[in-house]
User: Fold these one by one.
Assistant:
Number 1:
Amino acid sequence: MAAVRNILAGMPWWVKWVAIPVVVLVVFGSLIGTVLSLLIGLLFKVLLFAVLVGGLIYVVRKFMSSSSSRGDW
């Protein structure tokens, strides 16, 4: 880590804060995009699962309470 600091110590600010991040995005951009899309897709699926399970529980409870009051079972 000290070697990297020594190399970057003599560089102008724009190399550290502009050029290196741009190179990282060019080299690893597709990997970063793939990881982000995977995480967003996984989050969407988890939220969809939670909504569907919650809706199912709501429907079952509603059905059970309405049918138990009538005594159809």
Note: DSSP finds two helices and no strands in the chain.
Number 2:
Amino acid sequence: MTGSTPGYVQTLALLPASAAIARRSVRTTLACWGLEDLTADAELIASELVTNAVQHARPIGATPEDPGRCRLTLERPSPGVVWLTVSDPSRRRPGHRVATADDESGRGLAVVGATAHRFMMQRARDGKAAWVELKADR
């Protein structure tokens, strides 16, 4: 985060319950910033990205006591704009797939891409990061 940019950072265990924690953190942060109109989209995106990290970024040998970690970051670079990032320790980029009508999973990143103003996956020093920009209708 940059010097004067408001932000929030939370480290989450790579466990299924972390998606709910991420949604609650997003909701609280956006309320503090007066950006409640972005809450539904931001909660959906955070939940999808954290769930993706939980499913695909757990380190080999992870245990219930040490499942690995991901990081949720929210930044507000300007009024009405939110950057949401979920970073995890895996260097493996998610594959693009087309889910069939009968598939129960595989749509998460497509939903994120359709919901966000901008979306990208990037390599990070210690893994990868999914970055999203959301804009309020103002």
Note: The domain at 7-135 is CATH 3.30.565.10 (Heat Shock Protein 90).
